[in-house]
Specification:
Blueprint: H1 21-38, H2 48-59, H3 63-67, H4 79-89, H5 94-101, H6 104-112, E1 134-140, E2 145-151, E3 160-165, E4 168-173, H7 174-177, E5 181-189, E6 192-199, E7 209-211, H8 221-254, E8 256-257, E9 260-261, H9 266-291, H10 298-325, H11 333-338, H12 341-371
């Protein structure tokens, strides 16, 4: 009896998911940097001198050139490959990966509208070597609130920030933008400060640049901006989940009970399998969505952020319980994750709220416009 041949693994990979040699080399360089420089920080925070060395190594990855369009000598990296790189960097403390890359959502938004010239006189590489930064901001359109994540160590130049402005976006200097805002620091994550700004209307600062026109896919600037933030933070949490599962598998193989590795016990194996399934499902969801660029559905983005926020939190708690039930947690990666990941999950939920408000506003505007 003839049996159907088993297809090779390469036959199961969609053509759009294949990786070129340049992309593979780029990912390998990021993996080496993350493994050698960032992963050890889960055990202990770095000194100021040590962190400066890490930032110097990070600048050699040339993330700025990846984002620059080809017309300016860059690689014009897409969301799919960019999310893969961001996920790789999240094998260390997620707040440290964010400190190195927090400017990415704003830079991708400015690139989408050919507005990178507004960053002059600083070259784009300065946003990845500790010289400059663009703070990560998420608006609440109904409560006149901004959730503001910025690097406290970026002293030479005050962080820039994107904010809602009229019917578009404005790039402003945060040193002047907070003069009429009531600021409340929620938490300090390493060198990052997460603040809540309550503003009376838009921030009263002269924009360095403003984006008012819709993009090529008829997306509003705010929608593009929020989508970029959602994909970026999702990539951070997805990468952290992948690293956590890899740690859990190593821990399960090394930790022994009743003369054999604990992962060989059925109940432990089931627990590890659930973690792996949740992580792989999250990774595939993010990857499939970024492959749809530039036609990324806002409804699917909202589903993604809710899914990743929930799954990352559940996995973090599950991993702490997994380690605590078979030994100790202090000093292990799950202990470091437990104190930070929920804040990034909260930011994702703020993005979901902002996208819902934006969609409702656009629906109302189109309805009233049609009736008029």
């Amino acid at each position: 009896m003839m049996r159907n041949p088993i297809p090779s693994s390469s036959d199961l990979v969609p053509p759009t998911w294949t990786v070129s040699d340049d992309q593979r080399a780029l990912v390998a360089a990021c993996q080496r940097f993350a493994r050698d420089q960032l992963e050890p920080l889960l055990a202990a925070p770095p000194s100021q001198a040590g962190w400066r060395d890490i930032v110097t190594h990070a600048s050699s990855l040339d993330l700025g050139t990846m984002i620059l369009p080809t017309s300016l000598g860059g690689m014009a990296i897409g969301q799919h490959d960019l999310c893969g790189i961001v996920s790789t960097l999240a094998c260390g403390p997620i707040e440290r990966a964010a400190q190195l890359t927090q400017s990415i959502p704003a830079l991708m938004t400015l690139r989408a509208y050919d507005m990178l010239d507004a960053l002059a006189p600083h070259p784009i590489g300065d946003y990845f070597n500790g010289t400059c930064a663009i703070a990560l901001t998420v608006p609440d359109f109904h409560a006149a609130t901004l959730w503001h994540l910025h690097d406290q160590d970026c002293a030479p130049v005050a962080p820039l920030m994107l904010t809602p402005h009229a019917r578009g976006l404005a790039l402003i200097d945060s040193a002047h933008g907070d003069a009429h805002a009531c600021r409340h620091c929620l938490v300090v994550l390493g060198a990052l400060s997460l603040e809540q700004w309550r503003c009376n209307g838009t921030l009263r600062a002269t924009p360095l640049a403003s984006i008012d026109q819709c993009g090529a896919q008829n997306d509003s600037p705010s929608q593009t901006w929020l989508t970029n933030i959602a994909l970026y933070v999702s990539a951070l949490l997805s990468g952290a989940m992948q690293h956590d599962v890899a740690f859990a598998l190593r821990y399960g193989a090394e930790r022994r009970a009743f003369r054999k590795p604990i992962m060989l016990h059925q109940r432990v194996a089931v627990r590890l399998a659930d973690m792996l399934i949740a992580t792989q499902g999250t990774h595939l969801f993010l990857r499939a969505l970024t492959l749809a660029e530039p036609n990324i559905s806002t409804a699917l983005v909202r589903q993604l952020v809710r899914h990743i926020a929930a799954e990352s939190m559940e996995l973090t708690h599950e991993l702490v319980q997994f380690c605590g039930a078979h030994g100790y947690v202090s000093g292990l990666p799950p202990a470091a994750r437990l104190t930070t990941c929920h804040w990034f999950a909260m930011l994702l939920m703020r993005v979901d709220t902002a996208l819902a408000q934006l969609t409702a506003r656009h629906t109302f505007d189109s309805t009233t416009g049609a009736s008029a």
